[in-house]
Amino acid sequence: MKKITLILFLIAFQQIIYSQVISDKISVEFKNANIKTAIQDIEKVSYYKFYFDEKWFENDSTSINKRFKDTKIGEVLEDVFQNTSFNFYISDNKVIVTNNSIIYSQLPDDYFGIPLERDENGQITTPIFYQQYDSIKKTNSRNPNKNIRDLVLIGKEVKNQKKKSTYTLSGVIRGGKNNSGLANIIVKIPNSEFSATTDKKGYYSLQVPGGLNVVETESFSYNKVTKNIMVYNDGALNFSLTDNINQLDEVLIKTNKSKSAKSAITGVTTIDAEGIKNVPLVLGERDILKVALTMPGIKTAGEGSAGFNVRGGKEDQNLFLLDHATLYNPSHFFGFFTALNPYTTKKVDIYKGSIPAEFGGRLSSVFDISSKSGNVNEFQGEGGIGPVTSNLMVSTPIVKGKSSLVAGGRATYSDYILKSLDDENLKNSQASFYDLILKYNHKINANNDIESTLYYSHDKFSVSSDSLYKYSNRLATLKWNHTFNEKNKGSLIVTNSEYKFNIDYQSEGTNSFDFGYKIDETQAMLKMNYFYSNKHKFSYGLSTKLYSVDPGYLNPTNPNSTLIPIDVETEKGLESAAYIGDNFKISDKFLLDFGLRYSTFSALGKSTQRIYEENLPISDATVIETKTYGNNEVIKRYGGFEPRLAARYFITDDFSVRASYDKTYQYIHLLSNNTTQSPTDIWKLSDLNVKPESAQQVSLGLYKNLKDGDVELSLEGYYKRSKNILDYKVGAELLLNENIETELLQGEGKAYGIEFLIKKQVGKLNGWLGYTYSRSLIKLDSQFQQEKVNDGKYFASNFDKPHDFSAVLNYRITKRYSFSSNFTYQTGRPITYPIGKYDYGNEQYTVYSDRNKFRIPDYFRLDVGLNIEGNHKIKKLAHSFWNISVYNVLGRNNPYSVFFVTKEGQIKAYKTSIFSIPIPSITYNFKF
Q: Exposed e or buried b for every residue in 698-731, given b needs 16+ CB within 10 A?
């Protein structure tokens, strides 16, 4: 009996001691510990043993700095695992760590055959166990025999969490040679309405039901990837795709059809720089903006002209952005060349119908130009050598796998060509330009990356003249992209842009001078995107821009000069805006894209402003007061709402109708009394006497895809009304004019047209045909005769060309040889002719017709090219491409302008042309 009592005592004592040893309270301190280190620290101060998979913590960068005293083990682990996907289960002195899922201590009632409970949305409300997968997979997966070990767990399962109908699955899809983010890849759940498309950087956000799902990618260029996923909560899933390499009869490059078919935005054109190498252009230059002129609705005033006229708008009504910074003059040498290196330019998105709410400040269009990002894994380059210019682009990793640098340069050797000519005047001329660009990309981590661009272009010319003209662009951008969570992403962007020109006049007398002009702007933008659901995708943001305009100075360069120095007062202005937009998917057929933008502009001092008497014409004689404003004092404030609305409806799967309405404001104006834009034109800010311009446009279009989308048809019409459009009095003096408002007129404009485009993207014969019928009219009316033009009636603008037809065709003869052609026809632009003369006071004067009553002859041109690719060996020093082209092969003497000269009492008309003979060229392109 004593032995039994002793044994019972020892057992009871052992239980007491054991229960004290494995107390569930611990004291522990973590210093810069990751998850695995924290677990090891807990094991050192307790009798708990942890069980987990070592692979889970291989890339763990967690840093824990906390101290716990007499805290329950469960509370400590809840804190440690709070921002991770890990769960845990405690049994005696054992801790089992799980990834995503929860270990349940008892089975639910339905485990042995009772149907699973579901909520009103059909979602399972009871836990899902591995044993139930087989039955679920048969209804949800195309591959029911796939091993359960291939399952990917998404999100962290949380006890007592309210079940949702869908969860957010997000991530990035990478692939290709650079393992960079892939745009326009479709991510979807097969046989369901759940799908999404990756953005420019390869990111996607997809709503998926809870539980077991199958997710797959879809792309023409990359192999399909299918994954089984178990969704517990919101989470991330990344994909790595491989090139879809097939043995084809020919190599085809296809644009993104799905974006064109699904978007609600009207009047948008995307041009990829790589896809235009076969288009024959002047002097063999690959020029992304010149190709834009072959698209409906986009024109210039004449051959070799700077500036673009989009849907009846003036040259200054187009916003050119290079990596988010304003590019004020995108042309070299009066418009013959574009100031963009074709080998560093990725693409341009042209918005000429419905302009997204994030853009503002111009009435007609936005040219959103993107430069290429570098290769983060290896060094590579590309370039071209032509008869007038050469280009080079190199890309190199800075931190392998994370950052890269792209450097590009282009220069002309036209000075050398001019000096080799026999004509003495041309031999002493100058004509040269160059442009440089640097772009740096750095991926900090999964949620942060930065990119920065530096750009500079410079032109210098003096052709048979005693004046040396110089002008330059400079811009810099810095962009920080941040992912807050699966639904929220944003970008903070800071930019600076400068445009300036200079005229150095060297006179044989004493009146030599230096004349200059400069505009500078600094801008900050915050752009946010919020994926609320599969039906609503919100975008919103803020922006502010500070302008500083030096209207001009004139400094005599000869100490004996009789010229008086002039320095026109600097202008300043602050333009700010806020916007919000929603891409609202009402149904699979009906999509709305609407936004609201509010912009405001403040003209700022230091400034002196004239106040003119009301109800009288603005002139020196009607000034009643001169008012002085202090530094940064608000002179005048303008602003207003700019609603944007676009809708798309699918009549059938490949036939849609779209409509849009836009209102826009413009607070900055380009002053030019030339027919076409000149590098010496000046920008003017709105102020007390110059009102901002505004416009409203409606568009309606029909879009049809044929042959599985390989052929696209579109027919789009538009109507636009404008207010406060700037024009000028006859003989206006614009340069160095301190009271420029006395030379300006502001009137109304209207433009309308219909655009047709057929595009074939694949096959031996590919290309596009475009036709536009349009009108652009302006009315300058006033109660005062001196401020009227054409008796106050609507008349054709300088760039009104009713008929415009373009055909760009490429025929692939073999895998290495192809023939290309470019045909253009346009109605001649308006012009004012002299119609008579009269004598007055012993002087003879010319009588002119109403402004722009006549037209110069119609314009047409045919260019042809032969493209020869190098052999297709994979391993070679460089891959090459030859382009042999003839610009204006028919030798058409197209008139650029018509002017009149009085000789021997007679008025004679003369016609000038830019290229009146065929211009052959040969260009060698290489890539390594």
A: bbbbebbbeeebbbbebbbbbebebbbbbbbbee
* CB atoms closer than 10 angstroms to residue 819: 16
Check if the beta carbon of residue 443 is closer than 8 Å to that of residue 480. no
Based on the fold, state whether residues 523 and 566 are members of the same structural domain: yes
42 and 186 housed in the same domain: no
Question: Could you count the other beta carbons within 10 Å of the beta carbon of residue 422?
Answer: 6
Asked if 85 and 116 sit in the same domain, the reply is no
Domain boundary among 241, 274, 306: 241
Report the alpha-carbon distance of residue 29 to residue 46 in Å, rounded. 13
Residue 169: closest CA among 234, 77, 245, 98: 234
The enclosing domain of 224 has a CATH number of: 2.60.40.1120
Residue 603 within a domain: yes
pLDDT of residue 337: 81
* Other beta carbons within 10 Å of 7: 10
Residue holding tokens 């799908």?
Answer: 195
Q: Is 32 left (phi over 0), alpha (psi -120 to 50) or beta?
A: left
Q: Which two structure tokens, joined as six digits, stand for 100?
A: 């995503």
Q: Are residues 232 and 266 in the same domain?
A: no
Together in a domain, 77 and 194:
no
In 10 A of CB 922, how many CB atoms? 13
Total domains present in the chain: 3
Name residues whose C-beta falls within 8 Å of residue 651's C-beta, 6 or more positions apart in sequence.
657
Domain shared by 362 and 489, yes or no: yes
Range of the domain at 27: 22-99
Question: Mind listing the pLDDT tens digit for each residue in 348-398?
Answer: 999 998 899 999 999 999 999 999 998 888 898 988 888 888 899 999 999
Give mean pLDDT, residues 724-741: 86
- Cα–Cα dist 820/461, whole Å: 33
Per-residue model confidence (pLDDT) at position 80? 85
79, 99, 119: which is the final residue of a domain? 99
Residue 248 lies in a domain: no
CA atoms within 13 A on the CB side of 371: 30
Lowest mean pLDDT among 121-130, 431-440, 557-566, 816-825: 121-130
